[in-house]
Amino acid sequence: MELPLFITFAPSSPARPGISLGIEELSPDSTMKILIDNGHGLNTPGKRSPDGKFIEAIYNREIARRIVADLQDRGYDAELLVPEEKDISLKERVRRVNAACSATPSCPAPTGHPNVILISIHVNAAGDGTQWMNATGWSCYTCKGQTQSDKLADCLCQTAIKNFPGRRIRTDYSDRDPDWEEDFYLLRKSHCVAVLSENFFMDNRSDLEYLQSRSGMQSIIDTHVEGIVEYIDSL
Ligand SMILES: [Zn+2]
Description:
Number of domains: 1
Shape: globular
Order of helices and strands: EHEHEEHEHEHH
Oligomer: single chain
Strand order of the largest sheet: 2-1-3-6-4-5
Distance between the termini: 40 Å
CATH class: Alpha Beta
Bound molecules: zinc ion
CATH architecture: 3-Layer(aba) Sandwich
CATH superfamily: Zn-dependent exopeptidases
Number of helices: 6
Largest sheet: 6 strands, mixed
């Protein structure tokens, strides 16, 4: 079933850290800063479904906002990298990420990376937006080479496999891990663990229906939240 993009689902728990829940307190890693990027702005040209009804920037914003809210409810220090509606340049996005990195103490050796996670949320497209295509599935990307980011990508891929049953998870095991490696500016220039997720294809009819369904949207949010929590717990 197709749902309007701005629909608000049941509100998440209002509980915040420090408020007694009457149950065992959550104990997340309080030093980890989690930045969620929404990819594009409302003024970014293109980036929509062939029928023009699905706009990636709007969808990414809703997903990013709900990932941040869920993580905050669990007691994590999560925030939107781009609260603005308009497009923010990649250079400025990187500046914000690296400002957070320099303001946050690093993990102890041997990893030594800053205690910052960046995930950039996107929806994929196989064509130029004028026609429906056949490519389908979920994937995530890191920068080239084996880095700490591959560990976060592994966690996201594992939760994706669990949360998207019957849907294609696009993997690339040529370098022995499931994520794809690309020279994306945001990933390459950020001084932290950084992953970009491509959440299905907006120019594939079946993927688009899933993206806009209540269960599809929730599974995308859960995949990011659970993958991040699993990664932090593994440190
Ligand atoms: Zn995108």
